[in-house]
Structure formats: structure tokens, C-alpha cells
Amino acid sequence: MSSAVFLGVRHHSPACARLVARAIATLRPAYVLVEGPADMNGRLDELLLEHRLPIAVFSHYRDASRVATSWAPLCEYSPEWIALREGRAAGAEVRFIDLPAWHPAFTQRAEGAANRYADAEARYAEATGRLCAHFSVDSVDALWDRLFEVTGPDDTDALQARLDTYFDLVRGDAEADAGDRAREEYMASWVSAAVAHAAGRPVLVVTGGFHTPALRSLAHRGDSARALAPGPREGVQPENPTAADSGETPWPRIPEPPEGALGGSFLVPYSFRQLDAFAGYQSGMPSPGYYQRLWEHGPRDAAQGLLRAVAERLRGRRVPVSTADLVAARGLAQGLALLRGHPYETRVDVLDGLAGALIADDLDRPLPWTTRGSLHAGAHPVVAEMVAACTGDAEGRLHPDTPLPPLVHDVTEQLARLGLADAEGGVTLDLTDPSGLARSRVLHRLRVLGIPGFTRVSGPADGADPVFTERWEPDAGRGGRAVAATRGGREVVTAGGGREAALIEAGAYGARLDEAASVLLAERAEAAGRDAGPLAGLLFDAVLCGVGPLCAELLDRLAAQVGKIGALGPLGEVLASALGLWRHDRVFGAARGELLGGVVAGAVERVFWLAEGLHGGDGVDLGRLGALAAVRDALLHAPDLLPLTREAAADAAARIARDPLAPADLRGAAFGLRRTLGGADDPAAVVRTLAPDILGDWLAGLFAVAREEVTGGEESLVDVLDDIVAALSEDGFLTGLPALRQAFAFFPPRERERIAERLLQRRGTRGSARALLRTTADPLQLARARALEENVARLLTRHGLRSTP
Question: In angstroms, rounded to a whole number, what is the distance separating the alpha carbons of residues 570 and 259?
């Protein structure tokens, strides 16, 4: 009778990896079952190619309501990797037995972990907290090193017993969540099937230790026959379809994405930085560089190697580290190891010794290895270098025979055809030339997808920008396998390391570059919802990418979304961007486009709706003034697009301008809009009625929308304002001056100079208007200083202390 041997491990633990290798060599099992995505079982040959580790299985899923991505990393000392490699070498059948990463069981986790091998113990921390307190250590990682990684030579036989005890305590009586239960029942069904097929030989089950007690319990109760019942179209035929007919125990079905959903998995290169908990990964073990040394050379050499690595990093950055400092650090580390009862110095012993010898400053937060999580910004530079030395700089690389998603091949072909694949220097593109525009669109699609390679350093900022060239510069340090472009919102071209991984991950969005860029833009639009902030940039990105029919769907969606935006400022940005593209964009082919016209029409109608209901608020809001200015441009230059007539718009502007509850700047802008549309109201008559504290705000709105229309005429508005300001008291002048200055900032320098000349003429004063505008100090400070001097003079006079000149 076959039996299952359950081996609970901590992910990315060298000690557990050694235990797995020893168990395979001792048991010679018929099957080695490993926690991992079962949908990869047909591609284990691909996974076991001669890759340079670390690598990861990248899984993606997308349907109408949910998007999920996940990474399952593997490095040389990952127990899962050792189980696969050593199991295959020993002649065992190896299988992944967990649900696919896209399955809802993973998204049911409260923290929504993006890494399959995120620690379950972090979600059930009560037991580990008690253990840390009992052994007087600061963190789970220090506890793990003490109990398992740095053990004496006589402890090897007891390692598995200690692991079982540890994981029993971690799991305890805690109720697993629904996702864990679903996964464990599914994994148990694989164990049951393997035992039935093993013909009397043992079956080795290697899973995260948190799951081991539950799997053992399910096997003992005979519950392992229950497989997770898949939803519609989630199941496929068993691996041996005749087993059910012959009465044999069938292998569990491997779930497939439901109809209408897209999902899949690809191998991607990974790096030690991505694998490190200090960089944000929810891994089993932090500091992969240190544990790689531990795996290769043992605890004594790992400690010495870490000491050397820190010294080399610090000296390379010109931080003085003397031999005496290193001797002191080594002595401290050894002393701490003895004091803590460690047979060899652990990672924490070495780091504490280095910190004690090299850091003389007071630290404002605990040392990062005493807690769990990312390294904080502003960390002490020595501490940051110590963490970096622990991390290491290893980067994975896939074997050349590794299948890649279709997007990689599509991008490779396009880059080669357009002469971008081998570009070494910067690329300057003439956007009026069809070939330059085609190259620009490819680069922008890669930028939108976040594929590194080239960074755009110059080019048109919007559709109205009279710039017809773009300049792209290559990223520094490109290298590795030249598959295509990369990621980061900026770049393109030869890819290696993280760039290759980024391009493979972008394959989740589509098989072609234009399709992938369009899907990502649509996802950004969906995420933006009613938040207009990202929509203006999104609109221009869509035009820069030129993604054809898919772009049409995106513009339809944007036209619907502008009708739900709740703030005038962001809505004005979207309107200005869409109108500029509609009016001027001959370069990218968006001018006079029907779909852009829909965005413009919806935005204008929404601006009036929001403006008429806006009450309260002091000061000048440049965003809402920009929205009224954009409406003015739409009414003047694209009237046929709009759902309201010029007369209806003028009437709406008049209502806003007369509304006493509306903000003063909005009333001024509405007055200017009506004047621009042909209204005959006199602004001079209005300003005579305004209080000094709102005069500048009202004028700011007026000048933002109708500066040219209101500064002429027989009775100049400037003359009226000069009379009003001259009649103000000192206190009134000081109150109104900041807003008045802001209002006249809407005039360009040449017009401000003409206004200054007019004011000099009114006073019969000869002088330079240009010099008047170029004061050596802030006019507001000068006015306040003058008011202060006059106040002091009055006080001196009142008390008889002012001397007679």
C-alpha cells in the first residue's frame, strides 16, 4: 500500500531545500507533488530547461469584472525548485498540485497577495509572535534562522520534527479562510490520486508548511477524494481520460478560465531584488543574496561573505571602513552569536555587529531587519548598503528555447522592420513623415505598456503644440538577450533582465502591440472612473498610440465618462485637450474626428451643468477658470459639435454672472464668456459695485476668459480700475492688492507694459513703464512696508513722540 509523506517547507529556505533533496534521495518516491499552479504541468519540461535562476511563473487572468496577475518565483534554493529538479532526476513523476493563480481562491485573500508564495504565517501571526517572545528575537526571520537555518551538525536528523512542530503551532486552531480551504481540498485530491497510482511506492508532498497540517488531516480522514467542483467550463478532462472508465482513481481536473475570460502563464526572468522582502516582496525569506551564499557555502562562509560584501559596497561608495572597523564588527557578531546561543553567526548577528561598529549616529527608526516590510525612504546610508549587500544583484535569464508570448515576437518584428531593434544612440523622428509617425506610434505603445528601452525627451505636449519632431534617448545599461522592447511607460528596444520580463508580462494584454496598448488604455480609463485627473493624459496617449478601431472604443468610453465628472478643473483639462486635438491635430490624424467631437460636446454640456450649481468658495480657482476658457474656445471654434446654441450658452453665462452665491472668479469668467459671445454688458459698470476684497477675484475670472474683449472702448476698464484703486483706503488697498496682481497676471508682458504707460499718462508722469514693471522687490511687500511705516508714524504722533522735521 502506497503512503504519502508530507514535507512542510518555508518558501525560499535553504534548510528546507536540503531537507527536500535528502527526502527524495532516501525515499525514491514514485511521485513528487509540489505546491504550484497545476495548469503548468504540461509545461514542466519548459520550466526545467537550463535557465539562469531566479525565474518566475507569471500568470494572468482577465474577464469583464476581474483582472488578476501573480508571480511564483523560484531560485536555486527554493524547496519547490529542488523538488522538481531532484524528483525528475530520481525518476519520479513530478506534478504541481495547486489551483491556477487566476483562480478566485487566491483573490479571496484579504491582502490580495500578488505572489503565490506569500507567507501564510504572516496572516496567522499569533503563534509566531509567541515564539518570538519565547526565544527573545525581534522578527520571524530571526526566529527561523535560529531554529532551522544555522543549526549545529548534530541537529540535521531532528530538522523535520522541528519543522512539523513549528508549522503545527503556526496553523494552530486558526480557521483558514475560504481560499485556503479550497486550495487545500484541491491539493488533497492530487495526493489521493497519486497514492492510488503509486503501486506501493511512497508519494512525497512538498507544500508550504502552513498547509501541511490540513493536508495531513484531510488524507487521514479520507477527505482527499473531494476535488474542488469547478464552475462552468472550469474543468478539463483528466490527464488519463481512460482512468475513469477503467475504475482507476482519476487525476484531478485542471481548471480552465471560464468562457469569455483570458488567462495563461509564462516564464519570466526574475531578480534577487524582486525576491527580497525589503523591496516589498511577500516572500518566505528576505535577503536572497545572503541565503544564496548560505545555500552554496554553509553558515560560516555566508557570515564572512556578508561581512566582506558590506565592506566592499561601502568602500565602493567612498564610505570609510577601516580594517579595525571590520575586526570590531566581526568580534561583535561572534559575541552576539554566543550570547544568543547560535552555533554560527546568523544574518542578524552579522548585521547587528556591523551596525554597532559602523553607525555612530542616533537612528530615528528601528533597524529594518528587526521588523518585516520594505526599507523605509531616508534610511541611514550605511543601513541601506547593508540591506543591499544582503539582497545581492543576481538576475535571471530564460533559456533561449523558452516559449514566449506572441506579443514578444510581434514587437521584435516591428522593431526590426522600423530600424529600432539595433538603435544605439538617440532617435529623432519627423512626425510629418509617415515613417517617422509609424516609429513614433510603436515607441508610444511600448511606453504606455511600461516597456523600458527608450525615453521620450521632447515632442509635442498636446494636439495644439506646434512641434513636429520627437526625440527619444536610449536607457543606460541596456543589455542581455535582445528580444524586443521593454516597460516603464517610457521606452523601447533591446531587452534583457527586467525588460524582458516586462515585455512577457505585457503579453497578458494582447498578442499584438496595438491591441495590447489599447487594452491597457481601456483598463486605465476604467480605473479612472469619474476621476478626471488622468483622463486628459489618457486621451492624448490614445492619440499618440494611434491604435485604430480599438482607440475608437476608448474614445466612446471617455465621451461617456466626461458626463460623470464632478469637478470643473479636471473637466476643463479634458475639454481643452480634446478640443486642441480636434482643432489642430494634423500630425496624429485626430483633427475633426467624430469621436473626439463627442468628448468635446459632452464636456461643454457638463461644464455648464456644474458651473450653474457651484456656490460658495473664496479666492481664485485657476482650474474652473480654465474650464470656462475651454468652453469659450469650443463655442467659437467648434459650434457645430455642441448640443446647445450660442444664444443658450450666453443665457447660461448671464445666469451664472448674476448669481450672488457663485464664487466671484466664476462670476467674472461667466461675464467674460457672455461678452465674448456678443453680450453688450459693460464691465466697468460691474466693477464699480464690487467690494475691494472680491474685486481682484472677479477680474481674474474676467481676464481669464475675455481679456481682449474688455480692455478697449472709450471709457477704458483700466481707467475705471485706476480710479477705484486710487480711492481705496490703505487697508482696502492692502486687502485687494494680492488678488489684483493675480488678475493682471493673465496679461502678457507687452500688454502689461501698455497698461503701465496708460497709468503714467493719466498722472502726467514721465518715466519708463518697463522700469516700473521691473521693481526690485515684491510690490505687495512694499505696500505692506509703507502701511507699517504710516501706522508707526500715527502712533508716534498720538503719543507726542514724533520729532518735527
Answer: 38
